[in-house]
Amino acid sequence: GAEADSNVVVLSDEDVAWLAELPYTITIPREYLGEEEDTIIVHAGLIPDVELKEQEIETMTTLRDLKAKCNKKGAFTHYKPHDKAKDEAIVAENPEQAKECDARVAWASAWFGPNRVVFGHNAKRKLQMYPGHWAIGLDTGAVYGGELTGMILPGRKLVSVKVKEYSPH
To answer: Which long-range contacts (CB under 8 A, 24 or more apart) does 89-95 make?
Structure first.
């Protein structure tokens, strides 16, 4: 038979049930951090101008880019998640640029509050810090041999350690 992989962890039914009950975001109150806004921790991303309770699970676990949608008069109306495409997303320098009709934009560069967001899930872009630091992406490619990056709160101090490249064998 096949040899057991010592890196594989087998979860019990109870473990799976416990994991299924965990929230998709964690909100750290501003008072705890000594800041003017709360900080939200999420795996992948959030759509700007959508209440936290209205965010879709798929968005919170897979989002990388947005598409700005406009009405027939050319006025911005909302963002939609943008699936992978061959063209690169733009990095918005300001809220107006993030809302240009049909622009594909890195979601974190379109986030201008009201809360700060810390996220991962995007090793290709590495550390993401945009004007105002409203959304900070910590995925620095540890699984690909990059660094493992974390943030110490309060204070938003970044810490990184080198890792070996992941190998499933």
So the answer is: 89/64, 89/65, 91/130, 92/130, 93/131, 94/131
